[in-house]
């Protein structure tokens, strides 16, 4: 699907203003014994009351959205939440990157994570675990340290107070 530059820049503005761009670290598969290494996921989330803007994100980039019911207790207007992760999020961030201002540093870190995930060396470790507990090789320590460092950098960005 061909999307106008003005639409992409509009969507980037929404990400800058209303969005979250980050890396999630998932240890569930390690705790359950299905993997020997944590999983890292790049992601975008946007929450806002304008459903049409959220629908536009879904139309352009895929992902999913839902209406948040808890928000309705405190406001008469519903809140819509859009989410996209992993490869789909990385593809979206690559398209949005030239137009991002506020969330550009987070987007660049997510794209570094994607590059790490797609590296030949990272893919050489074999099966993640699948159906048999503990099966598969752990990720190389330097790759895990690199990914964990990206995750920590994004956490630091999110913890900094915004100044005007």
Helical segment count: 7
Q: Beta-strand percentage? A: 15-25%
Helix percent band: 40-55%
State the shape: globular
Architecture per CATH nomenclature, i.e. the level-2 architecture: Roll
CATH topology: Endonuclease I-creI
H and E order: HEHEHEEHHHH
Spatial separation of the terminal alpha carbons: 37 Å
Mean pLDDT: 87
Number of strands: 4
Rg is 18 Å
Q: How do the strands line up in the largest sheet?
A: 1-2-4-3
Indicate the low-confidence ranges by residue numbers. Answer: 127-131
Number of domains: 1
Largest sheet: number of strands, sense, barrel closure: 4 strands, antiparallel
| Helix-strand makeup class | alpha+beta
CATH level-1 class: Alpha Beta
CATH superfamily annotation: Homing endonucleases
Question: Would you kindly provide a brief summary of this structure?
Answer:
48% of the residues lie in helices and 18% in strands. The protein contains 7 helices and 4 strands. The longest helix has 19 residues, at 141-159.
Fold and architecture overview:
The chain is α+β, with helices and mostly antiparallel strands and 164 residues long. The protein has one domain (5-159): Homing endonucleases (Endonuclease I-creI, Roll), CATH 3.10.28.10. Helices cover 48% and strands 18% of the residues. The protein has seven helices and four strands. It has a four-stranded antiparallel beta sheet. It is globular, with a radius of gyration of 18 Å. Mean pLDDT is 87; it is low at 127-131.
